[in-house]
Amino acid sequence: MLMPRLIQKLTLLFTLLFLFLSLTTNAAAATTITQQFKEAPQFYNSPDCPSIDQDEIDSEAEPDGENTIFCSEHAVHVAMTLDAAYIRGSMAAILSVLQHTSCPQNIAFHFVASASASANASLLRATISSSFPYLKFRVYTFDDSSVSGLISTSIRSALDCPLNYARSYLANILPLCVRRVVYLDSDLVLVDDIAKLAATPLGEKSVLAAPEYCNANFTSYFTPTFWSNPSLSLTFADRRPCYFNTGVMVIDLDRWREGDYTTKIEEWMELQKRMRIYELGSLPPFLLVFAGDIVPVDHKWNQHGLGGDNFRGLCRDLHPGPVSLLHWSGKGKPWARLDANRPCPLDALWAPYDLLQTPFALDS
User: Fold this and answer.
1) Which residue, of 128, 150, 183, 199, has the fewest CB within 10 Å?
2) What pairing do the DSSP bridges indicate for beta strands 76-82 and 180-184?
3) CA-wise closest residue to 16 among 5, 4, 24, 6
């Protein structure tokens, strides 16, 4: 008699556990749809935009005629990550790109979402489609397990999210026919034509282009352990390395694939697990591989640091000079500060691109 009772109790226990997991999973998914967004206006190409047609496409690479743009060299390919925590920022970034380009219908968006939250990825896709029904985009899933074992803790837990490292895997995630891409973080807005940035000449050998900041203290991005080890510090012996922000990059994916740069980045991350050589998440491996070997882009394409430092998120001013892109890198995000009624002055420049549907608008 004891055995059937034990089985009944175990069955009940597993049933309750299943219900609990289902409820928590549904609650997590629901957090992605509590925010509702307005539909953005449709934007059209100017008359002088290049035409994208099937004749220019390799039929073996992309046989579906409706998806011609995703392999077109005449398209501007933009890659971004998508997650629930930053979806509001992503929506604003997309709107700013479309609003300020002359050829919005020639932009192909490539979004990367975590495969570990496939339900959320579907909701994120639906959210984008609802606000941008005419947007040409695809959502790719990123396997967190491919990088989670390589991640070392950094100075801010948000920097340790596996999706932060997806930019290192774009050459593997995106179709082989995509040869050049502009990578953008989700906490920025453009106020200039992204086609100008995408057309940055990369020369004969360079893999990527980004704004460089050679006045920054480059040594501070690595630990004394790194600099005191000659075999490590000599990494930069034949280069003049400068800090660059990986939130805005133009990447030649063909050259990346040929040089197997994902493996080079992973090798530095593996070393970091054995002996701590840096503190700041996904940035230092990029610096180790590319600093001193990139094509510098005008600083106007990344007015970064507007989110403040990684500890306090204090307000900051713009750097001197023209502005094409505003980037709230750092701890403070404009949507969070606006919601808390503690905005920084420059957060007012982000607000016009916010597509969040307010409760008042929902009731009207």
Assistant:
1) 199
2) parallel
3) 24
Encode pLDDT of 233-292 as tens digits: 999 999 999 999 999 999 999 999 999 999 999 999 999 999 999 987 889 999 999 999
Letter string b/e over residues 254-286, b meaning 16 or more CB atoms within 10 A of that residue's CB = ebbeeeebbeebbebbebbeeeebbbebbbbbb
Across-strand partners of 114? 142
For the segment 112-150, what is each residue's pLDDT rounded down to a tens digit?
999 876 668 889 999 999 999 999 999 999 988 888 788
The residues near 150 (Cβ < 8 Å, ≥ 6 apart) are: 165, 266, 269, 270, 273
pTM: 0.86
**Alpha carbons 161 and 159: distance in angstroms, whole number:** 6
Q: In terms of C-beta density within 10 A (0-12 exposed, 13-18 middle, 19 or more buried), how is residue 237 classed? A: exposed
Query: Two tokens at 235?
Result: 């990494």
In 3D, which of 63, 132, 125, 138 has the Cα closest to residue 104? Answer: 132
Beta bridge partners of 248: 184
33/31 Cα distance (integer angstroms): 6
Beta strand extents in 136-281 (DSSP E only): 137-142, 180-184, 188-190, 208-210, 212-213, 243-244, 248-252
CB atoms within 10 A of CB 26: 10
Query: Position of tokens 């990684």?
Result: 310
Can you tell me whether residue 73 is helix, strand or coil? Answer: coil
Q: What's the whole-number average pLDDT of the chain? A: 86
Q: Reduced to 3 DSSP states, what percent helix, strand and coil does the chain have, rounded to the nearest 5?
A: 45, 15, 40
What's the length of the chain?
364
Beta bridge partners of 199: none
